[in-house]
Amino acid sequence: MQTTVKQVHRKELFGHPVGLYILFFTEMWERFSYYGMRAILVLYLITETTDRNPGLGWTNMEALALYGWYTMLVYVASIPGGIIADRMLGQKKAVIVGAVLLVIGHSILAIEQMWAFYTGLGFIIAGVGMLKPNISTMVGGLYPKGDIRRDKGFTIFYIGINIGAFLSSLIVGYVGEVYGWHYGFGLAGICMLLGLLQFVLGQKYLVGVGDFLGKSSNVEDQEALKRPLNKMEKDRVIVLILSFLMVIVFFGAFEQAGGLMNIYASEKTNRMLMGWEVPASWFQSLNAFFIIVLGAAVANFWANRKLKGREASSLFKMIVGLIIMGTGFLFMTAATAQFESSGSSAMYWLVLAYMFHTVGELSLSPVSLSFVTKLAPAKYASLMMGLYFATTGFGNKLAGLLGESASHLGEYTVFTGIAIFCILFGLLIRLFLKKLKALTHGAEDNEKRIAQ
């Protein structure tokens, strides 16, 4: 159950509420700042202090360890961010607070001092924790219960995320590698400020969405806050928590992109293209590029499958997404085999891996966001979204640990092991699909197009 929304007429654009596009662009700039910084973080850490563009000179293992802790904490902070929104601020105000913290954090990172480095990361962790779960919950709040457009709406929102990620990997990555790491960090802060301004100016399209339920005059809102959860709501919380296991496994594998795969692109991939060396950070843009190109097609595939009466539940999509993403690591297995035999690895292996990772992500990540808003009790809407992002954070930490293990196990073993485990885990969850769907109590059984 999503946060109760006032039944007001909402102006639409391309078949969706205009408010969706306000959230789309806000999240686009937030992700531009985050992924831009992520694209250069590990590279900054491992670059020698004597380099023409000096970094911190850390070892790969040290850099991946920090990367794992940082990316985990960024998303685990969504739990307190969700609690603060549910109990004190509401989602809308929490997004504004988070955006302000992010502007401060990225700006501090532009200062070339170690105190600024750690302080900036701290502000970014707090900012993402306030913004990320609450803006995602607001997307669900735009749609009435049972509206089939919800999954597509989250996919559109997700495309916004990845336009930001795509542009930031190219722009911030280039600025950071060529002109200076701290210029890249500072650019991310400027773009986050644009996102904050855009969100504030678009409030008229978000009336009744993301407001604090404690101050609502709606009787249903007040009752939802006061009464204990019933059996159906408890079952739905259980299935959400169980589905989060897939999220942890997925992101434990998927987030090798910013760590081990980033280092692999930098150190073991032949990046020469027509006499020009492609920056290692640019490979981070492939995932976002494929999401922009393939996002609508994947969403339409699942929507058409559902309309034909075939299995297309959120849980089934997540299972398929996990298996497809795992399969993508077999291309990294091939890449490492090529490197071991010839001393060089072709760029197309990374391209193929990222393409499979993207198709898997499109079947799991935006769908799981939508799934949370369908099943989460209204009084815990932001908290459950916070728990979802926390599980992605645990997946990020797992990714860091797996990346570190490559120092003694080797990339071939790590990439192959990830592929096998993801595929087998997805098939195992498939065996329990019917029982898990029963716990949702038909939350997706009667979805249809509902006019706003």
TrEMBL record:
The subcellular localization recorded is: Cell membrane; Membrane
Cite the source lineage.
Answer: Bacteria, Pseudomonadati, Bacteroidota, Flavobacteriia, Flavobacteriales
Pfam families attached here? PTR2
Q: Name one GO molecular function term.
A: peptide transmembrane transporter activity
Membrane protein topology class: Multi-pass membrane protein
**One GO CC annotation:** plasma membrane
Domain annotation Major facilitator superfamily (MFS) profile: ranges: 19-437
Q: What is this protein called?
A: Proton-dependent oligopeptide transporter, POT family
The UniProt record lists the keyword Cell membrane: yes
Keyword set, alphabetical order: Cell membrane, Membrane, Peptide transport, Protein transport, Transmembrane, Transmembrane helix, Transport
Organism, by scientific name, is Arenibacter palladensis
